[in-house]
## 1
Amino acid sequence: MRFPQQLIDGYRAFLVGRLRLEQDRYRDLAESGQAPQIMVIGCCDSRVSPEVIFNARPGELFVVRNVANIVPPYAPDQQAHGVSAALEFAVGVLKIKHIVVLGHAQCGGVKAFVEDSEPLSPGDFIGNWMKLMAPAAVKIGPRDALSPAAYLASLEQANIVNSLDNLMTFPRLRTLIERGQAFVHGAYFGVATGQLSVRDVATG
Ligand SMILES: [Zn+2]
């Protein structure tokens, strides 16, 4: 099986386009190392690329993506935790100032949770992963009070807040936030409209 032609074509376009424009920046970043100020925790969804949405240049965003932009709670249990590892590096080494949890409309992960979908494999990795957003579902209340689409959107947004709450369970990050040395933000991207909503800390 050949390497996908789409990627070869895309890379060629990058070589003569963006790389040419950013060559010095890439060289500088290679020498001096990365020093992004902003971390984005986003969804794997191919329509919601943080670098594209925020028009980011190389070295500007430290990004971790997973199904449904979930931050699991702090759990120092010697198990493997991908998001926690990225957070540990972002906070401890990069001294990131801002952490943005970026949710989005039509999130397949949130939909799978709402529909209580059948496991896709014996491991039921998505099912188990999505259980982390159960507190968000409890907070927004019964689903029959809203239309299915409104409920989904409401849960997508509550899931962002749940991830923000879980960020506060990481002791070192919590201390930095309380000292005003780090900041967390919630944002929601409307795939069809391109509209970005940012959570108002004062009103929620
Ligand atoms: Zn998603």
Note: The pocket of zinc ion is lined by residues 43, 45, 68, 104, 107-109 (CB under 6 Å).
## 2
Amino acid sequence: MPTPLAIQDLIGNATEFPILNRWQFFNHAGVCPLPRCAGDALRTFATQFENDAYLDSGFYRQIDALRTSAARMINAAPAEIAFVKNTSEGVATVAGGIDWRAGDRIVTTAVEYPANMYPWMDIAKRFNVELVIVPEETDSTGARAVPLQAILKACDDPRTRLLALSHVEYASGQRHDLLTIGAYTRPRGILLAIDAIQSMGVLPIDVQAMNIDFLSADGHKWLLGPEGAGIFYCRQELLASTRPLIVGWMNVINDQAYGDYDFTLKPDARRFECGTHNVPGLLALKASLELLLSIGTQSVSARLRELTDQLVGRLIEKRYDIISPRDEASWSGIVSFASPLRQTSEQHDHQAIFRMLRTDHQTEIAVREGRLRVSAHFYNTEGQIDQLIERLPDH
Ligand SMILES: Cc1ncc(COP(=O)(O)O)c(C=O)c1O
């Protein structure tokens, strides 16, 4: 188990987070920078492979250790974790792994990232499955969210096979209440498939308490890993009935028996891994994920709440409209907001603000679905948030 790290020692620490030397970086909901420990893992890998190839490296044992750490982060068993190349592969593994019947229903929302929409559209078309899409609404605070009750109501049909949901929606930052949702879906036999790329590592996830059946998350956002190395969880009881998306040499029990063919799939989640791993990617992900794990998701989450509260408070002072829900159940690390003058003033146009911050101030945010989106991580400082606010146009 990694030694617990004090979060205070890492905040604003440019040795551990070199990005702090050059950028005010607030796009962790897009693609994250690597912390030094992940860079070190890649450098060590490169040196080792230049000099000794895979011999005596211990890399494969480290990948097994990552399986254990990833499982611990979401309260799963290591046997329920597979490595995937991205979130899309995890979602598609679920979509392609179920024996769909004509007339089945899949429920999702109208604001999913396309990685969590096209696989279901594909299934709907191929198997005559109904895809039910729940829209986003404006709530009483002016925030945009898909109401919990609307999701549950959409599921309320005996033909519903699966609910596909992002834990945190990429454009609004809404966090869904998975404890309540999972308590509804499990007794009704509805599979709960979660895209967790916008939450894993920084918001608590407990696949058992939340009754999650499948979960997918690439490492390149809040987990602070490189692109192309991700985590897929499949609940133990569903392993045998979920068909692997791609079959290759590694899915089977005797994967080192080579020519002695025996097409018996592994009993654990490694049955979803078809061939050689992205070793450097997973080693870097291990370093980042274990850094977060050693701080503790609760501490990271509390820090994100502080930073996002500060940001939202200052944005309101500056008369921006807050789009992200901020109540206790729905807040996340994503803060989306809009200028009331975005359509009438060139200076307030969102793309213009985005470009001005990047070009004039080495400050990175994002524009998604017409909204400005800031996603700070725990190591960003209050001072950086203040600077960002100063640079935004007044109203
Ligand atoms: C909710 C969500 N899912 C998935 C992805 C990315 O998918 P992948 O890991 O397949 O690139 C993103 C990226 O923005 C996202 O916001």
Note: DSSP finds ten helices and 15 strands in the chain.
